[in-house]
Each structure stands twice: as structure tokens, then as C-alpha cells.
Amino acid sequence: MMSPDEVDKFIAALDNTFLRRGAVRELARLGDVRAAEPLINAVRNDDDPKLIEPVTRGLIRIGEGALPALLDAIHSDNKTLRELAAEVLGEIGSQAAVKPLIGILLNDPAKFVKMEAVASLGKLGSSEAVDPLITMLGSEDKFLRWTVVEALGEIGDIRAVEPLVNMLNDESEEVKTATQQSLDKLGYKLGGVIDAL
User: Fold this and answer.
1) Region of residue 125 (phi > 0: left; psi between -120 and 50: alpha; otherwise: beta)
2) What letter does residue 19 receive in the DSSP assignment?
3) Which residue, 44, 116, 140, 165, has fewest beta-carbon neighbours within 10 Å?
4) What is the DSSP letter of 140?
5) What are the tens digits of pLDDT across the range 87-134?
6) What is the maximum alpha-carbon separation in the chain?
């Protein structure tokens, strides 16, 4: 087990460009709550793509202790950091993330940040997200529609049935396939859905 002094040394090493990757890996492995903000700042201040995976892993390991730093990070000007935060919030599984993720879904201009928010809302399974997700079914982006359809299937709320049935007419075959899978998860086969409507 690491002593507090050793954790502090790894946190301090994040300031050194040559030591940063190794320090991130060690802090991710340790999962110490004191590392949450420094790990987020490593991504905020360095565009090294090799930091993303270990920072993500570390924040997931820290769990709910990372929530304050993550909830702050989703408002960052840094698109990569917002995307990472949206993903990790879903992996941690705290219902405290639902409203902030809905805010991202409705207001963030970046497609991939929205997609991570949608996927996380699906993992969290909150019925509070159903209506905002349904509004996103009209997106022009087929990948966003696909992700929304999958999230609605994961949440499993009956309010999604009729909007999902309408998605069976989507122009994208991928969206149609995902829609049928989501309807199946909701316990509806195509014939039964049509009869129910």
C-alpha cells in the first residue's frame, strides 16, 4: 500500500512532462481520491492522447470520490475533458450525475460529448432521462440517434415505446436495427407493438 507521501510524489510528478505518463499510470492504479482533480488537470493541461485511458481508468477506480471533480470537468472548455467526464460519470454509476448529463445532452455543441452523455444516461437507467433522450431522436446525426435508441432500450421505460416504433422508419439501417433491439429489451416484438398502438 502506498503511503500518503508517495501519492503526493506522483501527484507532483504530473507537473513534469517527462514523468507525467508514468505518474498518471501509478495514480490510476492506486485510485486514491486525492488524485481525482490532479488526474483531470493532467488531461485539461496536456493534449497527449495516451493520458486519456489511464486517467479514465483511475477516475473510475476512485469512484464517487471523483464526482465533484468530474461534475466540474463537464463544464470545461476542453472538449476531450468533457467527453472523458461524461463517460466516467456513467461508469461510476451515481444518480447524482443524471441532471448534469442531461444538461450536456441538451446543451453541449460537441457530438462526441453528447454521445458519451447519452451512453452514460443509458447505463444509469434513470427514467428522468427518457424525455430529454426522446427529443434527441430527431437529430440529423445517425450515430447520435443510434446511441439514443440504445440508451432508451437500456433504461427500459415504457414511454420510449411509441417514439422507438417511429424510429423503425429511420433512413439508417443501423438505427432501425438498434431500434428493434431496444424494443426487444422493452419486451415488445414488432407485431405486438403495432397491435398495442
Assistant:
1) left
2) T
3) 140
4) S
5) 999 999 999 999 999 999 999 999 999 999 999 999 999 999 999 999
6) 66
C-alpha cell at 16: 513534469
- pTM flag (> 0.85): yes
Are the C-beta atoms of residues 151 and 186 closer than 8 Å to each other? no
Residue located via cell numbers 490532479: 38
What CA–CA distance (Å, rounded) separates 108 from 22?
32
| Residues composing the chain | 197
Which three three-digit cell numbers place residue 172? 439508417
Sign of the alpha-carbon torsion through 107, 112, 117, 122: positive
**Dihedral angle computed from the Cα positions of residues 180, 181, 182 and 186, in that order, rounded to the nearest 10 degrees:** 100
Residue 80: what residue type? T
Helix extents (H) in 31-78: 36-45, 52-62, 67-73
Q: Which residues contact 176 (CB under 8 A, 6 or more apart)?
A: 167, 168, 169, 170
pLDDT digits 0-9 by tens, 143-156: 999 999 999 999 99
What pLDDT is attached to residue 47?
87
- Asked whether the predicted pLDDT for residue 50 surpasses 60, the reply is yes
- Distance CA(131)–CA(128), nearest Å, equals 7
Mean pLDDT, residues 173-177 taken together: 97
